[in-house]
Amino acid sequence: MACKSCATGEDGQPKGCRNNGTCGTDSCNKFTVFDWLSNMSLPNGQEPFNCVEVRYKNGRKQYYKNPEKLSLSIGDIVATQAKSGHDIGMVTLTGELVRVQMKRKKIDVDSEDVLKIYRKASQKDIDIWSASRDKEEAMKVKARQFAIDLNLKMKISDIEYQGDGSKATFYYTAEERVDFRELIKVFAREFRTRIEMRQVGFRQEAARLGGIGSCGRELCCSTWLTDFRSVSTSAARYQQLSLNPLKLAGQCGKLKCCLNYELDSYLDALKAFPKNDTKLYTEKGTAVCQKTDIFKGLMWYAYEGEWMNWHIITTDQANEIIEKNKKKEKVASLEEYAADHIQDTKNEFENVVGQDSLTRFDSPKRHKKRKNNNSRNRNRNRKPRNNAKKD
Fold first, then answer.
1. Which of 233, 291, 296 is nearest to 260 (CA)?
2. Which of 156, 190, 205 is the last residue of a domain?
3. Domain for residue 390, yes or no?
4. Fewer CB near the last or first residue (10 Å), C or N of the chain?
5. Cα(88)–Cα(216) distance, rounded to whole angstroms?
6. 40-66 per-position pLDDT tens digit
7. What is the pLDDT of residue 337?
8. Pair 132, 199 in one domain
9. How far apart (Å, rounded) are the C-alpha atoms in residues 39 and 48?
10. CA terminus-to-terminus distance, the chain
11. Which residue among 91, 121, 151 closes a domain?
12. Which domain, by its residues, includes 86?
């Protein structure tokens, strides 16, 4: 993917701006971070932070030490330490903001899990890395066919080669435990490389592959969302959404993460509303809540036995009636409260395009004129009548 000011090359890399995907529009890479501390100088005597952030395929990020104190900047291709061999990635963040990110993710700088950077990648390293990446798509097709032949209930969603081409990581999803020992033997015999199987969740799979959501934008999990919080159907109930699985589920098959975005605002607004199961006792009868409008702060009540007639009152009025009921007092009826909220159901239609006619661009009709011309032609071709009287 590329930003709007440049195009995308055949290899998927942005071209045109020549910034290697690190332009200021922040659109070429997944999970890019804007370094808002880049223009600030460090105090005298303080050394820059010795760790950098490196990104790999499909937004996978890790933090590495820079023991050689290499001069690294965003967009540099580096060779990093791996459990065996080395990997190739791109630097996405340097400086003091890396310290903030590692602290936020609770990563200890002195931990053994924080590996180191070997060097800047040479042209030979990049060529091996590119050749390994070109094999991944064909391998994925074969790997899926092998899993089907072995009747394994799993889906291989993605393959990622290590930078030196010595290992291939197979990402898969499965609802149950899968015994893939025989599958690994088939992979090792067919692909002639070390194999690592890594199970990911359905949300992580959607984040790695990416896509376009029902809102028309790129998936949040593949662009900026880094932590996956649990989403329940109660979030849809609080927002008064229809519990339709087709509309509430995302591409991963789970509930959409965006259901949590406005949930706190709805919960704050609902604090002023009485519970829906609370009944209102009046001299006319007992009223039961039928509907609520969170944005307007209105509630609809109907008397028991008169379910077709709904009365609109505000939340303040409902709370006032409930307080009187607690004191064993009853109001006369809901009609005296709902009189101010009677809605006029008369529809007034206006010309939304102004005073111009909707057919102002249509060509004028000429049917009548053609009819007149045809009648004239018939009159001309008609033989003259002989009105002379015979002798």
1. 233
2. 205
3. no
4. C
5. 33
6. 787 877 888 889 999 998 878 899 999
7. 81
8. yes
9. 13
10. 100
11. 121
12. 47-121
pLDDT at 25 over 50: no
Which one-letter amino acid corresponds to residue 262? E
Q: Which residues contact residue 94 at a Cβ distance below 8 angstroms, ignoring those fewer than 6 apart?
A: 35, 48, 49, 52, 53, 72, 73, 74
**158 and 196 within one domain:** yes
Task: Tell me the percentage of the chain whose pLDDT exceeds 70.
Answer: 79
How many angstroms from the chain centroid is the CA of residue 316? 37
Residues 285 and 329 grouped into a single domain: yes
Question: For residues 295, 298, 303 and 304, what is the CA-based torsion angle, rounded to 10 degrees?
Answer: 30
If asked whether residues 113 and 136 sit together in one domain, one would say no
The answer to whether the CB of 314 falls within 8 A of the CB of 298 is yes
Structure tokens at 74: 């965003």
Kindly state the tokens that stand for 182.
Answer: 């025989």
What six digits make up the tokens of 316?
Answer: 């303040």
Helices 181-191 & 123-149 angle (0-180, nearest 10): 130
- Exposed, middle or buried, 225 (CB in 10 Å: 0-12/13-18/19+)? middle
- pTM (predicted TM-score): 0.68
- What is the per-residue DSSP string for 367-380? HHHHHHHHHHHHHH
- Specify whether 95 is located in the same domain as 26: no
**Residue 139 sits in a domain of what CATH number?**
3.30.300
For 188, the token pair is 């090792």
Is the CB of residue 206 less than 8 Å from the CB of residue 218? Answer: no
What are the tens digits of pLDDT across the range 297-341? 899 999 988 888 898 999 999 999 999 999 988 888 888 887 666
**What is the side-by-side strand order in the sheet with 280-281?**
280-281, 286-293, 298-303, 311-314
- How many Cβ atoms sit within 10 Å of the Cβ of residue 81? 15
Into how many domains does the chain fold?
Answer: 4
| Residues 110 and 176 placed together within one structural domain of the fold | no
**Residue 203: both structure tokens together:** 């949300």
Look at residue 388 in the predicted model and tell me its pLDDT. 47
Q: Cα separations (Å) of 6 from 76, 170, 210, 257?
A: 20, 32, 21, 31
- Using an 8 Å Cβ cutoff, are 187 and 147 in contact? no
